[in-house]
Amino acid sequence: MSIIGGVRTSTAADLRSANLSRALRAVHEADSPLTRAELGRRLGCVRATVGALVSDLDALGLVRERAAETTGRRGRPSARLGPAEEGPVVVALEITTHAARTATIPIGGAPCDVTTEALPGREVDAVLDTARSLLARRLDTLTGRHAGVGVAMHGLVDRRTRRVLSAPGLGWADLDLDVLDRLGLPADRRARIDNVANSSALAESVRGRARGVGTVLYLHAAVGLGGALLADGRLVAGRRGLAGEYGHLPFGTGDRLCRCGNRGCWETSVDQVALAEAAGRDATPWTAETVAGEVLADGSRSARDAVARTASALGRGIGALVTAVDPDLVLLAGHAATLFAAASERVHEAAAAACLPLHRSDLPPIETSTLGDDAGLVGAAESVYAVLLDDPATLMTPWTAA
After folding, report:
1. What band does 15 get if pLDDT is binned at 50, 70 and 90?
2. Number of domains present in the structure of the chain
3. CB crowding 214-252: b at 16 or more within 10 Å, else e
4. 298 shares a domain with 150
5. Residue 279: pLDDT above 90?
6. Which InterPro entries does the protein's record reference (predicted)?
7. Residue 128, phi then psi, degrees to nearest 5
8. I need a labelling partner for 69 at 20 to 30 A (CA). Which of 57, 154, 243, 327 fits?
9. Strand order in the sheet with 234-235
């Protein structure tokens, strides 16, 4: 960028960098390897420009062209453009209520070598020591290929400070915790942290069912219930990044105490603990996933009734939120998706009864996540790629994570 007569103008180098970014982002976000012709159509570029961009990205070690498989059709099959096998990668870490998980995410976005390690306890030191050890082992195997680290946290994360404020499922409250520092990560743009609902929603907007959809209400439940609102592929994060804590709206029944300290929160009628308790079974945040799974698999009358009541509670909240945000799509993940699969009619009926009458004949589709349990990992990596893909050369710049 240069300034002539007080006006900012783009230089040839600026334009080249911008085109490289657009080309690499197209490769990264494509569902499958692209031909040069397909890349040209996506970029609106002529053949010669596409050739130059492919050559430059190849020289940077970011993409490779591979010969296409023979199809038996007439004519020479077109080569396909995809990520370089030994190119840079982003490491994703997810800290859940019971485990830490890591994955290597190359350009192209598919998680590789997902590793899970159970947490030895819920104390802050025990959780973060386990996560740091798992992350360090992953980084050591990559011999300098890692270009950044994204962290998805099952807790409340202040986007302004990148600090964890609480993690009710782990029993953490009233925190001001620099998780990135505790993980040995530098405070720069290549290390990112967000809550798992935001991370998962971002993944769905780039790679999943939410791609190309206008307004999406995303709900993720496990121990607790959170979510996110997507508008044209962008998170509506709020002032501190704390938007989407729908589980703490007063949609719950009765005066049940929530882990947040309030009473009557929606998640106390919907999450895994709620389902276990509805079936008359004891569950703690530590055992809720297992117990909820047992209830869902149990064909007894009492278990079916518990699933129906919990699904109705999920639907009531969805109906209220449909009235509030008028989404094009409601997307469910985690325990919410499992509950919906088990009792979708109950969810639909309750949602229709709880929303404004004008919505009842035209409820938005209610669907389940296409990315499954890996959505948090994919989204954590996408938060880093969102920065790195703006300047492809930075992907090849050495980065020290610890």
Report:
1. confident
2. 3
3. ebbbbbbbbbbbbbbbbeeeebeeeeebbbbbbbbbebb
4. no
5. yes
6. ATPase_NBD (IPR043129), ROK (IPR000600), WH-like_DNA-bd_sf (IPR036388), WH_DNA-bd_sf (IPR036390)
7. -75, -30
8. 57
9. 234-235, 224-231, 215-222, 329-334, 366-368
